[in-house]
Amino acid sequence: MSLAILSSRLGKHQATLEYQWMKRAISPLSLEKMLARRIAGEPLQYILGEQPFGPLTIKLRPPVLIPRPETEHWTIRLAELLRPLPAPLSILDLGTGTGCIPLLICHLLPAGTVRSHGVDISSDAVKLANENAAHCGFSTSSSDTGRNTFRTIQASFLDPLFPHAHLNVSPPFDLVTSNPPYISWPEYIQLPPSVADYEDPKALFGGPDGLDFYHAIAALVARKGFLSPGAIVAVEVGDGQAHRVQEIFQAAAQMRTEIWLDPWKKKRTVVVKPGI
User: Using CB atoms within 10 A as the burial measure, which of 41, 180, 199, 245 is most buried?
Assistant: First the structure.
């Protein structure tokens, strides 16, 4: 009966796929409880407790943002672009969530070449991201020279004093990444319940026009000494935002920008290289 109800909500093909995934899941939940949660509208990733991200399996818990395929796509492309940069790379991921972006970069680049930090205002995200570092086999100690490292700290990069000395993370950075909150208010009030009722609003809502966090990131990376020579900044953007985000970075400093398309040909990532 539960599968029939799920089929009426999702369609037979999708419901059958999800039913098989739930049957194969290693979970303390019974199949019926998983089905009941899915029928109620909870995202499957939260029920299974994990999400593939490139070759990695990322642990998930609500309300931390669920990694999306478009984020995976540009992260892999970015890792390919990084290989000419000098090692060890110093990486800062703003609004890290599960830690999926820096963790995938750590996986794709040679061991001992990456020193990465994530920043998130959410204690739930910080705890989960650090768990994911261990789960994916990376050290949280920057003194571990044999492995790539990733550590997440709780802080707000909107604070004009960020990064504070006590955080033990300091410029310059070779790479700054972010999948920031970018949903505008008109879009936010139209979100489906599967998103609005489960994922953290702080990870979704980017201000009235969705651009608040891009202004903050642009101001941050424009500070003298924040980026190393040859550094790269990569930010994910919402549909229709790419050119406005380009303008924000270009207005903040002398920054060259380019736009990357996602697999569905949407303008998804703005890549910034300071200097002319």
Answer: 245
